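Collaborator request, handled under Task 6.
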Amino acid sequence: MLYAFNAAEVFQIAIEIEENGKLFYDKVREKTDDDEVKAVFKSLGLAEIQHKELFASLLAKLPPSARETTVWDPDNEMDQYLKMMADMHVFRTSENLDGRLAGISSAEEALRLALEFEKDSIVFFLSMKDMTEENQGRELIGQIVKEELSHHKKISVELLKQKK
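Structure tokens returned to the collaborator:
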């Protein structure tokens, strides 16, 4: 493995993604007139806050072995790197997100975009899990994936309702 993470680093990324996800759900909620879909996005935004709190709690409880550095970081640049990774992979906060949201013209399109972001999040964290050393908390990252899967399910159910 060329580069490996520890669970603490992955949880830091998860916290950043949850912050970005909250912003995403707030913005996408404004893009739809469907009250039921608005309620789903509001619920998902609130869940992002709960996930952030859960991940921060899990991060605080990690054993020392899950916090050991896996790379030499003499300039302490890992925090900036982790923030950049969260912004690049899921729920971007840049103009790119605003551009994607500008193209939304229906509740179904808003749900499809949300579903795409949740799928990206799941794939991202499964990849991060694979890049985390076993003795550095790999199994704990499965909890992040489980939380993201709950969002995927909720959006999928709402999308099925829209098609009826």
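The cover message to the collaborator said: "The chain has six helices and no strands. The two ends are 47 Å apart (CA to CA). Please let us know whether this matches your experimental observations."
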